[in-house]
Amino acid sequence: MGKDMSALPRTMLITLWAKAKETGMKRPLLKDPKAVKMMKAIDYDFSTFEGCWKSQVGVAIRSMILDRETKRFLRNYPNGTVVELGAGLSSRMERLGKNSAWWYDLDLPEGIETRRRFFRETDSRRFIARSVFDFSWMDEVETRNEPVLFIAEGLLMYFPEEKVRSLLVELANRFPKGEMLLESTAPCVVGKARWHDSLSKIDETPEFLWGPEDPGTMASWSRSIEVAGKWNFYDYGGSRWRWMRAFKYIPKLKRMTSCHIVRLRFKPESTERRRNV
């Protein structure tokens, strides 16, 4: 593949590199052979990221948790629907194996253009080329009267809280009985992307705009949003965190430096609640 990177956001490359590198480790947190193949096919100097161990561990952990929780959803709803928001070059469907769920991969047009180089659409896997904040994409998601799982990996931290809130409230209203898995980044990195170990190495560094101290506050955004689970990255990886392991035992540092995967459940408002609004 040539070195025309115009349609390939650099953040996509960081995630791809992290998963490919994890696959080659002795005791990997996850294996992603598709990521290895894609990285080899892209003409880019991935050695740029070699010293970015914090990003690499974080991506591996978040992907491991998201895979596990997606498997849980599919066990409960084998005919459900999965929508990956800001899909990038995610190969989650390939990692989890063949199933009867419907999948939608949503990304900006340039992201979907890149996806088409490595993935193909089928009757049960469709691509949507649109901004996640252009809510018209929701009209294209067929639920087949089954719950929908939305996944936002490495996405929402680049937008202000009011936009994140508008998205989640709209999803809760449009897809009652649905679920969402999202990554909530550490509060300490908000506004400081230029010092981030991997983002600082790419051109036009995007900024972190959202990272709540308590991800549970999302439940206050709507009566239809329930926080059903959250997982702290420091609880996984052990010695892979090196000197940062100590942060887990210092409450203030843990609160300010922790990333989480958060599971939301969307529930329809009761008739009584709507009457009292």
TrEMBL record:
The keyword Transferase applies. Its EC number is 2.1.1.-. Signal peptide: none annotated. It comes from the Bacteria. One of its GO terms (biological process) is methylation. Pfam families: LCM. It is an enzyme of class 2 (transferase). Keywords: Methyltransferase, Transferase. One of its GO terms (molecular function) is methyltransferase activity. InterPro entries: Ppm1/Ppm2/Tcmp (IPR007213), SAM-dependent_MTases_sf (IPR029063), TcmP-like (IPR016874). Coiled coil: none annotated. This is Class I SAM-dependent methyltransferase. It comes from Dethiosulfovibrio marinus.
